[in-house]
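Researcher: Here's the sequence for the chain we discussed earlier.
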Amino acid sequence: MRKLTLLAAAMLTTSISAPAFADGHLRITDEPVELTVHLHNKRYSYDENWPVEQAARELTGVHLKGATFGTNTPSSQEAHNLMLASGDIPHIVGGDKIKDMVNEYGPQGAFVPLNDLIEEHAPNLKAFFDKYPEKMAAVSSFDGNLYYIPYLPDGKYGRAYWMRQDWLDTLGLEQPQNVDELYDVLTAFRNDDPNGNGVQDEIPFFARQWPEVLRLLTFWDGRSSGSDTYHDFHVVDGQIKHGYAIDSYKTGIENIAKWYAEGLIDPEVFTRGSSAREFLLSENLGGMTHDWFASTSGYNISLKDKVPGFDFAVIAPPASISGKRVAEHRRIPVKPDGWAISHTNPDPVTTIKYFDFYFTEEGRRLANFGIEGEQYEMVDGQPIFTDEFKAKGPINSSLYQVGSQVQRGYFQDFNYEIQWTNPSALRGIELYDAGDYLIDQFLGVAFNEEEQAVYDKKWSSISTYMQEKQQAWILGSADINAEWDDYQATLEKMGYSDVIEAMQSAYDRQYGG
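Model: Thanks. This is the structure I predict for it:
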């Protein structure tokens, strides 16, 4: 019942009202129209044989022909660069991380501005952006034009703090409510043999991606990122900041280094990699992590027989030294992924109508759930995955294979994820909702030519330096207290203030600062 209640609530909060096509059906063109498309993701590239594409072709009359560059590389950036270098740009360009590319080259004429096309020919897209003008602002270029239709995630929650409730129970401990209590719990996990094997082999805190350790900075009122991208900028009262250059960072890293030296953080956190969660939990060694709600909750099912009493529970973010409870990671509402119309496109009007199709009720359902009767059935007016489809394996991977949940420009439906989320994660989502722990995100900026030049010249080397020093401090090969003044001075010499100035200029222009 709880799961159905959450599902219903999600549907109510994410639905949008938009006018249908005037003639009452989804056909865009009487005669079939063929358009080429470059659509690249590290997991896949465009496949015109996807059942979703075949269904869209039948409904709309528009047939996309695959012309993706770099199909053998997992790097979408490399694939996009190959496409640009070729000079042979397909009619539609899409996939991962196209925002910077289209916002830089769109004003130069490489991509078609979409504002007027949406106003005149895309009623569903217009309705969406009229309802969410902040999303339009987030993806527009410095010249005020929109050059791509973004992939728009749904739902608020991404990652949470997870802790072994069965270990807490074994040791007679309560869930930690602040950073000091968290330190005590992790110390007990290290010292008091919660897995009961008589060996001090427990790993109190672990992470599949090492930057997740940096989430701990929030316990000392620091920041590791302002978005769902690691090491990103953040915004404080309209001012652009970076977490690795503020004073609270020094206190945070000092304490993270202390925890690492004391064995409270996985000694292999920088090298163990993506297998950390699977290995440490299945071997009954891992005590706490910061990871995705849906996928992490699945271990409460998959390990219930292998690890007797296994109970991995979502805990509220422990309060910081100033009493703040912060969930730094959340689903970003607008991704830099999606698709755009290139200057080679012979029919932008038909193309924008095709983009608009995915914002109709039928098109959105197709992009999210696949084909009715194959991946899902309609139950009480809602698409519900069939038992046969769920039995095939991870839902998201299975959907990629049929062409759903791929990074075209579309509005995701969180209902797709709720259906395969374990009740332990749903309870965690309710906990985070009740606590209102989420904080606003930095949605990025679109640089003009001068700002882009400053950013391109200086930021990469600054970011690399920041992360190199960060790892040295955590590992104990250097001391942040001894080096802090020199570190700040070096950032200035490298042009940190110039980058912040360029970022602030772009931010004020884009968001009306």
